Amino acid sequence: MYLILKFILLYLNSYANTSNDNSMFLDFSCKAIDCYNSPSCLYIEGSFNESIDFSKIDVKKISHIFSHYHNISEIPDEIMIFKNLTNLSIISKEFCKLSNQVNKLHKLEQLHIDSFTIDKINGSIKNLVNLQKLTIRNDNQKFFYHKELPYGDYIPNMKYNVYEFDFKKGNFVNLKELFICIRYQTIKSIFCEKTNTFKRTAHFHTIKRLPDEICFLHNLKELNITSQEIKNLPENIGNLQNLKILNLNHNCISNLPESFSKLLNLEILSISNNYFSKIDDKISNLINLVDLDFSFNFNNKSEYFFEDNLCFNFSKLKKLKYLNLSGLKISRIHKSIVFINQNIKFIDLNLTALSDNDEGDFIGRDTLFYVFENRLLL
């Protein structure tokens, strides 16, 4: 729970840095709102397709544009007039088109797109050389479809879907933060003559792989790829030497590449709800790790298959403060965890299968409680 809250706060904080910038009144022929009377930030509640009264604004002063109007469908070519734009945030259920002219926003540093229907990650954004933070969210998995429809009724299906995040070496060279969460659903429909209805089955699609080129993002400090179906990380992910935060929660990963142990600047690693059957030994070399979430991992063949006595050696992780092993089917933990007792602030062992007693090099519930006391959640 503490880690979930941390990421929520981290997400909200990305907006907090801009919330102090006030926004000016923008006169749309559609609905518009007054945003704090600042000339640098526009919060638009309306459609970009409607005309803008440019007599009311100074486009040279606009550095932030937020459009969280849920019926907006596109960002038009006119976006290019905001030459000094550094932050563009779009949240809309209907959004599906980002103008190719966005590549002319040479000063853009942050781009946030949150949509149910975005058709692709527009190629033009790959040329935004100053882009430092990129967030792409496409999540329509909450859409509900009836299992049966009368014969002849229209069966809705998503026309626009992102299914791959791909780019080439040289793209996003200055990127520091990358957040990708893409999930969409398609429907397979079979007509049943006996009942005169369509039988429909929903199938959810996600990203299955990370491109090898992601390893060339040498300035990357934070990488969040969550709720996908990624099985393997790129072999050279260890090249991301500046990476400090890595969130791979809710994927299908069962092992880590050899280069993973080279991520020596990593401070936060969240890799819960994957398919590991033990804590990968490569993690033991991450000497600057402060926060490790390895909760609710299990082998994909059996929900209850996980290393009984946790053999992972904690002794090198001297900076570790927060450890989440909740939900793991473990009986005991290697005694090396005692060696890092001084810095540990919280260990979550809730919903584990800990035995009370010790056994050889492995300690159970009683010893853990004696060593960590109120810093331990059982």
Beta-strand percentage range: 25-35%
CATH superfamily of the domain at 210-378: Ribonuclease Inhibitor
- Topology as H/E string? HEEEEEEEEEEEEEEEEEEEEEHE
Radius of gyration: 24 Å
* Structural class assignment: mainly beta
Q: What is the CATH topology descriptor of the domain at 210-378? A: Leucine-rich repeat, LRR (right-handed beta-alpha superhelix)
Low-confidence stretches: 1-37, 141-161
Give the number of DSSP strands: 22
pLDDT averaged over residues? 80
- Termini separation comes to 14 Å
Organism: Vairimorpha apis BRL 01
Keywords: Leucine-rich repeat, Repeat, Signal
Protein name: Leucine-rich repeat containing protein
Pfam families: LRR_14
Could you explain how this protein is built, in words?
The protein is built from two helices and 22 strands. By secondary structure, the protein is mainly beta. It has a 15-stranded mixed sheet that branches. Strands 17-19-21 form a three-stranded mixed sheet. A two-stranded antiparallel sheet has the order 1-2. Strand 11 and strand 12 form a beta hairpin.
Features:
single chain; mainly beta; Leucine-rich repeat, LRR (right-handed beta-alpha superhelix); three-stranded mixed beta sheet; 2 helices; globular
Short synopsis of the structure:
Residues 1-18 form the signal peptide. This protein is mainly β. 7% of the residues lie in helices and 26% in strands.
